[in-house]
Automatic annotation (TrEMBL):
<protein>
    <recommendedName>
        <fullName>Prophage lysis lipoprotein RzoD</fullName>
    </recommendedName>
</protein>
<dbReference type="Pfam" id="PF06085">
    <property type="entry name" value="Rz1"/>
</dbReference>
<keyword id="KW-0204">Cytolysis</keyword>
<dbReference type="GO" id="GO:0016020">
    <property type="term" value="C:membrane"/>
</dbReference>
<keyword id="KW-1188">Viral release from host cell</keyword>
<feature type="signal peptide">
    <location>
        <begin position="1"/>
        <end position="21"/>
    </location>
</feature>
<keyword id="KW-0472">Membrane</keyword>
<dbReference type="InterPro" id="IPR010346">
    <property type="entry name" value="O-spanin"/>
</dbReference>
<keyword id="KW-0578">Host cell lysis by virus</keyword>
<keyword id="KW-0732">Signal</keyword>
<dbReference type="GO" id="GO:0044659">
    <property type="term" value="P:viral release from host cell by cytolysis"/>
</dbReference>
<keyword id="KW-0449">Lipoprotein</keyword>
Amino acid sequence: MRELKMKLCVLMLPLVVSACASTPTVQAPCVKPPSPPAWIMQPVPDWQKPLNGI
């Protein structure tokens, strides 16, 4: 049992050391989405009034 623990320690130590030594990845900058088109910002047309005149 003691040999197993020693083998695990020997196998895990390089992984831990390499993980601590590696540099963190650079995150991509946050891109602002474009503004919506002008036709989306206009009020919705009222189709009910023309249909009531029929």
